[in-house]
Structure formats: structure tokens, C-alpha cells
């Protein structure tokens, strides 16, 4: 059997298989192509095979089907996802070693493995990196991340503050608490309600500013700002019958802001907590490494990290700023005896290994009995890069964030947050920026629309996107999560619209829709930039000046049919082979006109060109339905665009508008937003069963 290989042979086989998978699947794109995702979904096993596929077949399945559909953010400097980051080379190699060797580090067995000593040394190195004395932080362990570390901190804090309350109530219990813990008030022994009752407590509350997700349900000062209100904190600490845990955010997860500002402020909080026997826990998942920054450019950040050594416990993350493989966090506490009281595993004798070196068995100081050897990647990466290496990494991140913030400070469409930063001088505003940049659109409608995501992940081409209906379609698509190539004969117009969209969501492209070469270039550009193409909106169009049909110049007639009709032919000729090859299907949305079913005198040839658009849409929808390539059309009435003067015969006058509005029951012209909304619906999954449809946006004119 393949799985009976051992030792060098096993490692050689696995290494060869990994090389095969990576060689076959690594791409220069971070996000997988839609066809790769679809292929992977279709390849997934629908049931458990009785005999199994075998090793080689499974490796081939992973390399050919699954790996190409994975997000390759860890292989790229551009991370698309949450805040976990990639991995340094040293950490990645160490993580592979963990798979082959000690995967489950539970008990300190110094004659059988060095794993627990590596873990202890890695935690010492972490303390050193952060300028913390390892001798003080004797309860230290690795966890799955900041959330798990915060849970450890709250568990230890709760045990401690309840015990201290009992000691305050009954002085005779104090010595017992210092030695082994008083059973009458140990939450681990008697439960939270009985322990609190015996300690004379009515409540245990958490006092914090803006809490981490693992604290929010328990936090008491939710309405406080990011910085601590020390007067309010003092009032809460003085409440009778209440034990308190003070949680200090050292780089809050959503903003990067700090809850304290300097050693003096931290020392005041320590003094207040000592008086009331309260526990201080620092949630430093994002901000701890700010202690490495050593120049005046980073004074505001360093002050936010000052004094954390005065805390009782500290949470940190390794898979964020240390760049170790996910998932890895760490927890530090000054109270080793409290850890034993809370986490000691008293059951099996083989779990009670005793060390003369003082190294604790990990399962006795944390919540996990089964735990991965997360320490080795941490040890490896700290060994490889040292303090100066990590200082340089962090400085690069801060400089990058500040460059983004500086760009936003002068942007016409966005403003930097929080408002106090935006309204500061540029120097002061940038001094507060750490590694997170918050901003919002100045247009509240855009803020409202951002994140609704009806088109999340979709990629489209919009022709005539530099003005009018096209601009409305581009803006709606991008605010709904799509990426768009803004094609327009006027590059300046295309760039203006693209720059008004959410950053990175739109790319301007100068293109002539009557040129097959330009259509091919547009396809190449969008696939190169965004990795795929889902939808083409044929919006570019012109209208001749309203006049008697026999007086329309031939060149106007030819130009109108070339721009209004020929792009359907060219886009079909270029895109259909691409979509057939991809096997993912596709969508055309063609902008026709309500004048097609309701032609008006003096604009007959325009109506005829739009009639060709509608007829082609219906016919093509049937022809390519078998390939899951759909065609739909939009038929707007006259709109608030640059076409109005020609529609009115050459000039935009109130009298001319009145003549148009008299034919529209709703009494107004259509708008780019109207057309954008309907185009968004047609491009969304909600319209996936529609093809060959012509949707009227006409205020009732076609009725």
C-alpha cells in the first residue's frame, strides 16, 4: 500500500508530490479564474469512495483541479482577503517540517523530543523582540490566534479577580490563595456562580474602549472612544460588589488606533487597578510590534505601546505581523499559578510530566489538549530575520499605509478617517497612521451603496463608459462590487469616470468600438488586469440631429449604424470564442432605445439602428443559449445625457423638453442612474434565467 512508506522514502515521496502540485498550479494571478473555480467545483467528490482514489490520483486531483482554484495570496505581495498575511520563507520551511515531525506538542518530555524546549525558547525570543522580560512573563504559550489568546486572558483574569475579591473579603483566605488557590472561590473547582457568591460578588465586568470581537459581548464601556476616559474608568472600578477586568487595545483591529498614550497614562491605570485588585489585559494583535519602531517618525505609535509591561496578560498574533503560517497567536501572563489553577489537566498520569527546568507542559497552561507545533515556524522566522529584520518589515508597512493616507488627504472623492485626523495638518494626520487606513467617499450615496455586492467578483466591459448612460452603468457596477474596463473614444472622459469609482475597481481604456483590433485589445487588457470577463455592455451610441428623414446626411447615417450596430457584431466575433474556450458562459447587455418599438418622426434612422440592436439581441440569445452565453437589451427613453440637443433638433430648450415630457407618463427624462440600476440587475445572478429580453426604462412612454 502507498501509505506504508516510512522515513526518507516517505519524505521524498511527499516532497516530489508537493513540487508537482506547485509546478502545475502556481500562477502569476492572485485570484483564481472563474473557469478554474468552476472546474474545481465540478471535480469535488460527491460521496466518499469505497476503495479510495489512491495516492497518485489524489495528488493529480489536487494539482489539476483544486490548487488552481485556490487564492494564492500567500505567494503574492498583494494580499486579497482578511488580515492574516503570508509567510516568510523560513517560517514556511519550518511549517513543512512540523508536518513530518512533532505535530502535537502537549507534554514536556525532554528525553523524547526538544519540541517543548523550542516552544519555550521561541516564546522567550518573542518577549525579547517586544522588549519584555521573559522572567516576568512565566505563563506563556502559543494559541490559534488573538481570539483564543483573549479567551485565555479572560479565563485567567476572571479566576484572579474573583480570588482577590475573596481575599479582600476574608483576609484568612489570602495565604491559601497565594499558595494553591482557595477551593471555595476557584471558578475551575466550583463554577462561576458559586465562586462569585462565596467571594461576595454580584458581577464580573470587562472595561474596555472599542473591543476585539472576542470581547464585545462582555465589554462594559462600548460607548467610550478609542482612548480611555480615566475618570469614567475610575468610577466603574469603584462600584461595590463588582470585580473588574480592564482590556486595553494596543492597535485596535478595525482602525489600528491605540487606547492609551504613553507610560504615564498606563501607570495611572495600573495604580487604579491595583487599588481594586483588577486585572489588566492588553489585546496587542496589531499594535505590539510598534515597540520596535525607533525613530521620531513613529513617536505616536510608540507611545501607544508604552507601558504594556505593566499589564497582567498580553495577547499577540504571529500570523499577522510576524508572517508565520496561519493559525498562530501567543499569550503572555505574569501569573503562572493562576494558569495552573485554570488549565491544569489532572486526569491521566502520563500527562503530569514534571520538569526540573521549569518548562511547563503546554496542555497545562492553555485550553488545547491537542495542539500543533506552532512554535517551530516562529522560532525559525525570528532566527532568520531578528529584531532589525522585523523592524524593517514594519517600517515598510507603515510607510505604505502613510503613502495611501497622503493620497487620500488630497483626493476629490474620498476623505480620511477619523474626522479628527482628516482635519489635522498633513504632518499630524500622517503621524497617527499605523498600518490601517480608514476612509470614506464624500458622496454619501456611494457610501450607502458600497459593499452591497450584487456584482461582487464580476468583471465587465462598458463601452461609451466615459459619459451619460455608460458612466451611470460603470458607477453602479463598481459600487456593487464589479471590476470594469471603461471603454471610450475619449480617454480623458474614461479616466475621469474610472477615478470617481472605488479605488482599483475601474480601468480606463481608449477604444474605438468600430475597430475589431480595439475589441481584441480590450479583451486582452481586462483579462490581464482582472483575470477574466463576465459581461459586455454595448452602450456606445450616437444619434443624428432630428430632421426629416430624407434630409439626414449619408455620413451621419453611416456613422450612426457603424457605432450603434457594428459593435454588436464585433463584440460577438471577439468574445464568443473566448467564452467558449473558457467554458464559463457570458453575458451581453445591449443598449437599444424605446424609439425602436415607438419610432418618432425625424428620428427614424436612429430608431432603425436601435431596431437592429433589439433584433440582433433576440436572435443571438437563441443561437448561443446552448453555450450559456446570454444576450439582453435595455430600451431607455430620452435621457439626461449629451444626446438631448440632437434629439431636440440641435439645441436643448425648455420648449423642446416639454414636447418630449408630454409623451412620458411619469413626466421626466431617464437618468444614467436609472439605466445603471437596470443594467446591474441584468448583470447580477438574479437575472441568470433571462435571455433575449428587452427591458424598457421609459417612464411609461412605450405603453
Detailed description of the structure:
With 703 residues, the chain is an alpha/beta fold. It has 4 domains: 2-79; 115-383, Type I PLP-dependent aspartate aminotransferase-like (Major domain) (Aspartate Aminotransferase, domain 2), CATH 3.40.640.10; 395-445, no CATH class; 452-697, NAD(P)-binding Rossmann-like Domain (Rossmann fold, 3-Layer(aba) Sandwich). The chain is 44% helix and 11% strand. The protein contains 26 helices and 15 strands. It has a 7-stranded parallel β-sheet with strand order 11-10-9-12-13-14-15, with helices on both faces. A 6-stranded mixed β-sheet has the order 1-6-5-4-3-2, with helices on both faces. Residues 171-183 and 216-220 have low confidence and may be disordered.
List keywords for this structure.
703 residues; six-stranded mixed β-sheet; Aspartate Aminotransferase, domain 2; alpha/beta; 4 domains; seven-stranded parallel β-sheet
